[in-house]
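Design job #97: recover the sequence.
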């Protein structure tokens, strides 16, 4: 069993409760190898990732955990997701997450489709009732679908897993952390994935191999 990698968390720079350094410290204690800080952004605050970078550099130099600056494009018009993703990357975001069409929020229809067609997106978070066509495009464009540990968003996990398995799309388990109690161990991530219907034989691929591949392709790990 490898160490945990979580590609979706939030700090005080959006609606999280924790400083980047506290997210990293708590994740380190829980056995994480890497964690991405992906605060909510739209056109008004794309510099979030840049503001995290100084803290990230200090942590990378001194603690045994990789912290990655990122951004979660949230409730933005679907048509401008590609533009926002490009700008976020230019401002320092190394992981781009899109806030998918979760069944518990009024996310704009078409967000999932725009996200899976955007080459700068890495993760489609809590995509709700994602269609097979959207999942297939995500597969073709090397975008992973999220199995969410977060209350509410997790209600769509079963559908996400079933649809992803049908078309062969890759998945990851993320927490969408906002508070200290949201971070989880590798063992809890296993339980969440199994509870969503993921076959046991797929656990290592989803929990370890897929997020590791994303970071290795970016030269982060």
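Job complete. Output follows.
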């Amino acid at each position: 069993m490898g160490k945990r990698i979580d590609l979706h968390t939030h700090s005080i720079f959006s609606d999280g409760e924790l400083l980047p350094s506290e997210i990293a410290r708590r994740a380190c204690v829980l056995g994480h190898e890497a964690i991405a800080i992906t605060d909510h952004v739209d056109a008004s605050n794309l510099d979030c990732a840049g503001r995290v970078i100084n803290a990230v550099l200090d942590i990378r130099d001194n603690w045994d955990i990789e912290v990655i600056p990122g951004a979660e494009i949230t409730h933005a018009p679907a048509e401008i997701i590609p533009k926002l993703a490009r700008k976020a990357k230019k401002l320092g975001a190394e992981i781009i997450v899109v806030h998918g069409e979760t069944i518990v929020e009024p996310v704009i229809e078409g967000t999932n489709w725009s996200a899976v067609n955007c080459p700068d997106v890495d993760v489609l978070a809590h995509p709700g009732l994602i269609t097979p066509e959207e999942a297939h495009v995500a597969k073709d464009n090397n975008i992973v679908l999220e199995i969410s540990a977060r209350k509410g968003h997790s209600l769509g996990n079963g559908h996400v897993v079933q649809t992803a398995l049908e078309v062969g799309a890759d998945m990851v388990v993320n927490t969408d952390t906002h508070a200290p109690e949201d971070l989880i161990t590798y063992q809890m991530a296993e339980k969440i994935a199994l509870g969503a219907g993921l076959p046991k034989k797929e656990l290592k691929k989803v929990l370890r191999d897929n997020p590791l591949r994303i970071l290795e392709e970016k030269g982060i790990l």
